[in-house]
Fold this protein.
Amino acid sequence: MSLDIVILAAGQGTRMRSALPKVLHPIAGQPMLAHVLQTARSLKPSSIQVVVGHGADLVREQLAADDVSFVVQKEQLGTGHAVAQAIPHLKAQNTLVLYGDVPLIESATLESMLKHLTADSMTLLTVNLVNPAGYGRIVRNSTGVVQAIVEHKDATPDQLKICEGNTGILAAPREQLIDWLGRLSNSNAQGEYYLTDIIAMAVADGLCVATETATDAMDVQGANDRQQLSELERHYQQRAARRLMAQGVTLLDPARFDVRGEVSVGRDVLIDVNVILEGRVEIADNVSIGPNCVIKDSILRAGAVIKANSHLEGADVGEGADCGPFARLRPGTVLAARAHVGNFVELKNTRLGEAAKAGHLTYLGDSDIGARTNIGAGTITCNYDGANKFKTVMGDDVFIGSNSSLVAPLSLGDGATTGAGSTITTDVPAQALAVGRGRQRILENWARPKKL
Ligand code: UD1
Ligand code: CA
């Protein structure tokens, strides 16, 4: 079966009260429309047509991709009119309609729905609702066969009692769909060309209208205002949390855990509360992440321990290495196996060797640090002269005394030592001690100044 997918995304989203087009509002850090596109792609369609209108340029700019075409709907004259804009681009046997503001629809649901599709049937996704207000109602005859969809504003009091609502998501054979769209009228309560009117036409043409019912109403919920947006965000996060727990992660509180990207996990991972994972995060077996950590685009290898309030971006934390509390690992940080980074330590573009330590209050930038090297508290690599960045290289078993300033470019050989409080400006040979500070003097019987 070949399939074109049409995604409706032209609406303004007035109730968002926003300068941003509705479909660009984020769920888990990605525009709603990006989620729909991802799901659409998973169905391997022949084409994806996005119908844009309000904020069309911005939507196109943010979501342009080789496999996505944009069709402009100049005036928003209704969902049927919106789908009709894509007609010239429909080539496949069947057409599936999705919505840019219904971001959490799952591909498995769509696949089940599409199974009902044949040359003489169309299919739609319905949802059973406790409060169906606002939704189009699925009208069935006495034997349960779908007859029509009636919009809330056009429904009779009896029809308003129907609790089976239209999600809006449907699929139909292209040729019939094009024929029905051409026959839509806007003589209804809203003066719009309703996509939903094609159901009665399908019935009249003798097609079977098959339905699939969503198992969770939140999966097919649209976001019309910020309240609904926040509900969808929570639903997304609950799903993500459940998926990770199923894979062997202990989440101390799934309600206080956020994923904004793609996460892979090993077994026996422990994640404390208020952790945010962003971008691509790989977490191996037996990793433990303390409370209030933000971890973006990073790799945490087996047994790594990230302690409370740490912020990692573009970091590779080696096996059994640990960092924090209050560590900041910036892009290009590599902690080799069993390396230790303590509190208030910032690393950028730096490799800390195997079992090397930087325990306290330190900045290490553009550095390559050997195995077992110990960086004393308050050490600063002076890697930037205001115009250029320079590198600091340390061998194995180096000992940097506390409060050292290491002025790059600089290299320190294996086993080198620097005295506390030194400003080191020239290379230090292996096994040597470098002291770069004023020599201490003792003035005996020092008379302190007296108040005048
Ligand atoms: C629609 C359905 C209704 C269903 C409900 C589910 C119709 C006529 N009604 O109603 O049966 O229960 O969705 O939420 O289809 N859009 C465009 N161009 C337009 C009009 C709409 O792109 O000219 C887009 C909107 O941006 C929105 C979506 O289509 O993403 C739905 O439009 P909306 O006006 O919200 O339809 P509803 O009245 O909610
Ligand atoms: Ca709507």
Q: What stands out?
A: The longest helix spans residues 226-246. The CA atoms of residues 284 and 302 lie 5 Å apart. The pocket of uridine-diphosphate-N-acetylglucosamine (ligand 1) is lined by residues 8-11, 51, 73, 76-79, 81-82, 99-101, 135-136, 149, 151, 165-168, 194-196, 222 (CB under 6 Å).
